[in-house]
Amino acid sequence: MTQPRTQENPQPDEIDRARKVINRLAEEIAQLSDKDIAPAEYYAGFLERLMYAIAAPAGAIWLKTPQGNLQLQCQSNLRAVGLDRSPQNKQLHDELLRLAAMKGQAELVPPHTSMALPNSEGSGAGNPTDYVILIAPISHDGQLAGLIEVWQDSARGVDAQRGFLQFMVRMSALAASYTRNAHLRQMVGQQQVWVQLETFARQIHSSLNPTEVAYLVVNEGRRLVEADRVSVALRQPATKVLAISGADVVEKRSNLVQLMRELFDSVIEWGERLVFEGTKDESLPPRVLSALDEYLAESNSKFLVCMPLADDRETKGKEKDKEKLPARSALLVESFESRPDHQTQIARLDVIARHAAPAMYNSGEYYRIPMRFVWLPLAKLQDGLGGKTKAIVWLVTVGLIALILSMIFVPYPLKIPAKGPLLPVKRVYVYAPTAGQIKDFHAVLKHGDWVPEKADLIRMYDPELNTKLRGLNTEIETADLVIGTGNVQGQPGNDNNREQAFRVEEAKINKRAKTEEREDLRRRMNAVVATPGDLWVKSPMAGIVLSTDFREKLEQRTVKPNEPLLRIGQADPKKPNLKEWELELRIPQKHVGQVLRAFKTKEPGETLDIDFVLTTDPTRSYMGKLRRDKIAAVATNEKSDNDENEPVVMAWVRLDGDDIPADSRVPTSELVGLVSDTIANARIRCGNHAMGYSLFYGVWEFIYEKIIFPLS
Predict the structure, then answer these.
(1) Are residues 451 and 550 in the same domain?
(2) 545: domain range?
């Protein structure tokens, strides 16, 4: 574009042509100001047309930075005006621009002029060149946006210079319009970015499912960063690739995903951001560098950023000694083509990461909550009831009502307590055959011993037996004396001899009778032949000794025939058989009514279930069966645990039978060495009743006995 030729005395037709050219250039500038183009392109075209319109040899456009400084946007032939001839020239010109920016008005500065700056201690401002400087401000909304500076030939007239300045002011208004529109477009663009970022933040924080949050991060983040692929990994505790943009499902076994997981793992362990823009940094940690090489060989990415999504809450230890933990998640951004705006992508990625880090941390924390299926409905119920306090009141109220209703309407087995020893089914007491004094016991006899039938148990002394045996012995000896004398003196055929023979015969008969009487007495009394009066109390059957402290109670005592000495049970502990044993329960008389009523609800011959535990093994429960005819008809008084007389009813429980499950029977190993001091704590199942009555039967019993029907 050639500049129009100027003359000192132009002709009217030349003036008209010049005016048309200027108007056309002004229209071009106006059209250019309405376009949505980059500032560099606009101001370059603006300056070119402006300088052509006013035939200026040089020009420049200065724009104000956000910090308030003037920055050269574009220039044309600036070196020709001679600003760089000396540092003083440049300083004068810079101060001139600063003064013009402070005033915000159009200026016409003659060549080689200077002026003092207000409130300035340095050198003044001025025009050190041979040209006239025309300055027009670019202002919009009362704010200075920049300056238009044009150097004009000083040979031009003053009126022409002023006309040029007015034209520049008109054009600066168009530049201000462009600047206003550019700022508006920039604000709209920024608003769109902020809206997108706000939408992104709202979406990723709208869920606590780690997979859903990860897919929102990668898909929305890919659009914001303008990348080709975005991926997210979560460490739980092993690193796992949760989401890849554009992929509905992450194929864990694919080679790309496995290499990506290794890259994520190495970067999370490293704890720093990895940036690859076409060249690798050899100073990276060996594991990170190796993982990056293997992944790039598979993905062919030209731009890659992998950064841990570290949250400030990922720490351990106390407030003063907090230790930063490795990030729980990480983000990977990739582009497959080189672009000039990678720094813009990294800047946007930093913003996205600041939002994604807490979202992934929150979802990871939520994922770690145990039994979420229980707490979530409770939380919704709490909100529905109007808050925590009301929820607690309602829950307590409903719980009490439910408890009361369950106590009334829910059936529950009533179990009556009882206690008793485990004994052989066949057992007898050993009695003394006669009254006498106990001298001694068999040397090896003790509690729990097995004894054969007719075994000697207790040695006694009976003075009457001694008298009887001595009398019989005397009579037998007398008869022997008569028989011996008669055999010596007897002569046949003499009357005296016949009488003597009669006495001898009578003595023989008497001896035989007394001998038989003595032997019968010894046999009945188990008498000791060597010591008349002593006798043995023998075992009536084979079995085990059930009595415990018989030696302390009976030794050297005088006992009667109706007084039991020992108790023998028919069982062999070396060869246990469950059929030989039963449970002898002592049911408190005040509870036996419940047991008898339970039998009324059953058919004749049916049994009640008994649950019991042995004192030798209180951690395992067994079962027994109780028949109605195995309950005693009368009560007996026994000492209670408080050493008070308490009436009890005896009952005998069967332990064996097909109606008892095998795993609920007393094992035969428990019967080895088992004796009568093995006590069982039992519960008799007396049918279903209301839960409150079954659980608090003792309380009801106390209320009826002590309050409703107290004894006078």
Answers:
(1) yes
(2) 427-566
Percent of the chain with pLDDT over 90: 21
Q: How many CB atoms lie within 10 A of CB 353?
A: 21
How far apart are alpha carbons 675 and 653 in whole angstroms? 17
Whether residue 588 sits in one domain with residue 465: no
Environment class of residue 172 by beta-carbon count within 10 Å: exposed (0-12), middle (13-18) or buried (19+)?
buried
Does one domain contain both 627 and 507? no
Q: Among residues 566, 523, 535, 564, which one has the least CA distance to residue 439? A: 535
Residue 176 maps to a domain: yes
Contact by Cβ (8 Å): 423, 506: no
CB 182 within 8 A of CB 143: no
State phi, psi for 138 to the nearest 5 degrees.
-105, 105
Q: Which of 351, 369, 387 is the last residue of a domain?
A: 369
Average pLDDT of the chain is: 84
Burial per residue of 412-445, b for 16 or more beta-carbon CB atoms within 10 angstroms, e otherwise: eebbbebbbbbbbbebbebbbbbbbebeebbeeb
Contact 58, 77 (CB under 8 A): yes
Collapse the DSSP code of 570 into the 3-class scheme (helix H, G, I; strand E, B; otherwise coil) and give the result. coil
Question: What token pair was written down for 554?
Answer: 């009976």
Mean pLDDT of 484-511: 71
CA torsion, ordered 423, 428, 429, 435, to nearest 10 deg? -170
Bridge partners, residue 441, by sequence: 458
- Which pLDDT belongs to residue 423? 87
Residue 553 one-letter amino acid: K
**Are residues 592 and 515 part of one domain?**
no
Q: What is the pLDDT of residues 53-79, one digit of tens each?
A: 888 899 999 988 877 888 888 998 888
CATH of the domain at 156: 3.30.450.40
In angstroms, the CA 485 to CA 472 distance is 20
Instruction: Give the residue from 8, 4, 44 showing the smallest Cα distance to 24.
Output: 4
pLDDT, tens digit, 9 for 90 and up, residues 542-564: 888 888 778 888 888 888 888 88
Q: Is the pLDDT of residue 320 over 70?
A: no
Asked whether residue 25 falls in the same domain as residue 174, the answer is yes
Please tell me the distance from the alpha carbon of residue 700 to that of residue 686, in angstroms, as a whole number.
Answer: 16
* Widest distance between CA atoms in the chain: 222
pLDDT of 411: 92
Residue 61: the pLDDT is 92
Query: Looking at the structure, do residues 241 and 335 belong to the same domain, yes or no?
Result: yes
How many domains is the chain built from?
4
Residue 282 CB coordination number (10 Å)? 6
For residue 277, the model assigns a pLDDT of 86
The predicted pLDDT at position 178 comes to 85
For the record, the structure tokens of 620 come out as 């395992």
Residues 18 and 152 in one domain: yes
User: Tens digit of pLDDT for each residue in 639-698?
Assistant: 766 667 889 999 999 999 889 998 899 887 777 666 556 788 999 999 999 998 888 888
Last residue of a domain, one of 138, 156, 187: 187
Q: Strands 107-109 and 323-324: what pairing?
A: unpaired
Contact status, residue 314 vs residue 328, Cβ threshold 8 Å: yes
447 domain residue, yes or no: yes
